[in-house]
Amino acid sequence: MLDSRPSVVCSIAEVRTMLDLHLDALRDSPDLASAIPPLMLWGPPGVGKSAVIRALCQQRGIGFVDVRLSQREPVDLRGLPVPRGDSVAWLLSSEWPRDPDSRGIILFDELTAADRTLQVAAYELILDRRLGDLYTVPPGWYIVAAGNRLGDGAVATVLSSALANRLCHVEVEANPESWIAWALDAGVHPDVVGFLRYRPQCLFDMTGNTERGWPSPRSWARVSAELALIEASPLPADARARLLGLVTAGLVGQGVALEFQAFRALAAVLPDAGAMLDGRVPVTVPDRADQRYALCAALAHHLRRRPDWPRLVESFLRIGLALSSDFAALAMVDALRDRPAADLLTVTGHPLFAAWSRRHGTALAAGLCGGATAIADAALAAIDPVLAGAAE
């Protein structure tokens, strides 16, 4: 009987770490190319399996070859036989990397959606990094495959045991903290970030009608893009609201879309976070938890996206002093997550940070905001002397 237990479950952030590790190893020791097993990413549609690979390659400035096996024929992989005299020459696809010094990732996406003939055609390239004597993958290229599970409602077939046994299998899950970390860096609309902070269970849900829109990391990223387009349109306010409702429901489903619209309506009555940071309106902390999530998301968004953000640090810390520790720590983590050390020092080195740390440093260290460990570890170097002084 087949083992129904899932593969090792990991977040998109952990997938990124695995990819970085293997790419660095191939860069430093090309002779490891045949020893490092290809990675097989399992997971439902929309969790970001292929997106994380594409983004990583762009950030590292390396090549990326996306092979959608379900849209291919075996000849696309092996090459086209062409008669040449009394022999046959093989014309290989130009997409395969040729430069022996090049680096990148070859992604065999939708591997589980390909029929057995295509899987067999991909065996040699995935497992042995070669096509007979015709072609060898350069040592700086890492091979990854991705596919959906049989229970995901997507097209999926069982992998051959011969292929499966040569891959490193991990199951990717939709992790709210990991996705929000990506969203902050990618400039996802603060209303989307704030809503998913408040309702993390709405990030991914396949329990409804999956033949229509349903919430996933991919669909929320598209909600953010549509929201930016609609907000920038010259349409009247009521037409924009109507259009956003239709588009959001089409992307994440009617129920979740209504929740998101209600969240935005409550966030809209808050004082403008940018104006608060600029000192043009007084600091106002709402009583409702959902509005506080919206405020924190907006504050972090301004500190991450505005070029004049160092000028806003004092106001940001003063607003933090007016917040409860859990929300102040949340705003701090989201504002500084994955930022350079110099940016962290700009905040922790501000004179007002001493007061902020006395009030909220313990909450930050305890990770009350969720996923705060990395920021807390970095910030504690600045917080510790302050806390020590306060204890004396």
Give an overview of the whole structure.
The protein folds into 3 domains: 8-173, Rossmann fold; 176-269; 272-285 and 293-392, no CATH class. Helices cover 53% and strands 11% of the residues. It has helices at 12-28, 49-60, 74-78, 116-128, 161-164, 176-186, 190-198, 217-231, 237-252, 254-268, 273-278, 289-305, 309-322, 325-336, 341-348, 353-366, 373-391, and strands at 8-10, 39-42, 63-68, 80-84, 87-91, 104-109, 130-131, 135-136, 141-147, 168-172. Strands 1-10-2-9-6-3 form a 6-stranded parallel β-sheet, covered by helices on one side. A two-stranded antiparallel ribbon has the order 4-5. A two-stranded antiparallel sheet has the order 7-8. The N and C termini lie far apart (65 Å). Residues 1-6, 368-372 and 385-392 have low confidence and may be disordered.
What is the chain-wise order of helices and strands? Answer: EHEHEHEEEHEEEHEHHHHHHHHHHHH
Helical proportion? 40-55%
CATH class of the largest domain, named Alpha Beta
CATH architecture assignment name of the largest domain: 3-Layer(aba) Sandwich
Inertia-based shape: elongated
Kindly report how far apart the N and C termini lie.
65 Å
